[in-house]
């Protein structure tokens, strides 16, 4: 039952034009545009195209996780809750934890496709990744858990319209202030200290340390993501309302 529901959730996600725009088109366009054109001053991060993509690719991978696990999942789940879909599914033989597991599996499948696409585009643009795949995988899983918890918490406590507005606003704000395309070093020190504690910053900077700098496991960034994951999932389990 979980596998069947996960397959259904994945098909619905891949057929949804607005979701594809958010999860695939926007991250890809950002990667290509900011790598090809010196829109953002990356002084200290490298000025050439290859060096720009080395900085941008990890951040865009983090943005892909944000768009799928948080923004897309929050909006779709919020409207499913509004229209009574979750209420009907909760009354089916599929247990509630099974439904959440199926949604998580759909998110992971979508992220695998996103990572494959964005990696291919980045390599074509001259990206030279370093580091170990295990560290990258752990960061992506921890980031997915953190953003999923926050997305489900938002979808399960706010009205669908409020979720739509808040999720899209958060996406834009975190895109600008989460170290995705703008280096955190560009912000004043007090602001930077706060931004570094955000899950998107921890994920993008952690991926950058591994994939660009060839570092080992970025434990500090992984710890930040772990705290957000535990807090978000626990709050979602406690306050999520099915109708």
UniProtKB/TrEMBL annotation:
- Claim: Lipid biosynthesis is one of the keywords in the record: no
Swiss-Prot/TrEMBL keywords: Antibiotic resistance, Cell membrane, Membrane, Transmembrane, Transmembrane helix, Transport
Which Pfam families does the record cross-reference, listed alphabetically? ABC2_membrane
Q: How does it sit in the membrane?
A: Multi-pass membrane protein
Concerning InterPro entries, the annotation shows: ABC2_TM, ABC2_TM_bact-type, ABC_2_transport, Nod_factor_ABC_transporter
Q: Which residues form the ABC transmembrane type-2 domain?
A: 18-243
Localization, per the record, is: Cell membrane; Membrane
- Per its UniProt entry, which superkingdom is the organism in? Bacteria
Where does the protein principally reside?
Answer: membrane
Q: Where are the transmembrane segments?
A: 20-40, 60-79, 105-128, 134-155, 162-182, 219-240
PANTHER family under this entry? Answer: NODULATION PROTEIN J (PTHR43229)
Q: Which family does it belong to?
A: Belongs to the ABC-2 integral membrane protein family.
Annotated protein name in UniProt: Transport permease protein
What is the source species? Streptomyces chitinivorans
């Amino acid at each position: 039952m979980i596998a069947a529901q996960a397959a259904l959730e994945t098909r619905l996600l891949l057929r949804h034009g607005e979701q594809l725009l958010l999860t695939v088109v926007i991250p890809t366009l950002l990667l290509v545009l900011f790598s090809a054109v010196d829109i953002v001053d990356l002084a200290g991060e490298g000025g050439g195209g290859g060096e720009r993509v080395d900085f941008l690719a990890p951040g865009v991978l983090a943005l892909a996780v944000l768009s799928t696990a948080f923004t897309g999942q929050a909006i779709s789940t919020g409207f499913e809750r509004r229209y009574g879909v979750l209420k009907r599914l909760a009354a089916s033989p599929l247990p509630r934890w099974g439904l959440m597991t199926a949604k998580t599996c759909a998110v992971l499948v979508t992220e695998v496709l996103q990572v494959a696409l964005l990696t291919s585009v980045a390599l074509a643009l001259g990206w030279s990744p370093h580091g170990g795949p295990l560290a990258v995988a752990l960061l992506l899983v921890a980031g997915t858990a953190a953003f999923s918890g926050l997305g489900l918490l938002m979808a399960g406590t706010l009205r669908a319209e409020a979720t739509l507005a808040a999720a899209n606003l958060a996406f834009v704000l975190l895109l600008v202030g989460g170290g995705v395309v703008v280096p955190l070093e560009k912000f004043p020190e007090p602001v930077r200290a706060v931004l570094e504690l955000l899950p998107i910053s921890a994920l993008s900077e952690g991926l950058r340390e591994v994939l660009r700098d060839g570092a080992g496991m970025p434990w500090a960034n992984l710890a930040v993501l772990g705290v957000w994951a535990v807090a978000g999932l626990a709050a979602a389990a406690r306050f999520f309302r099915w109708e």
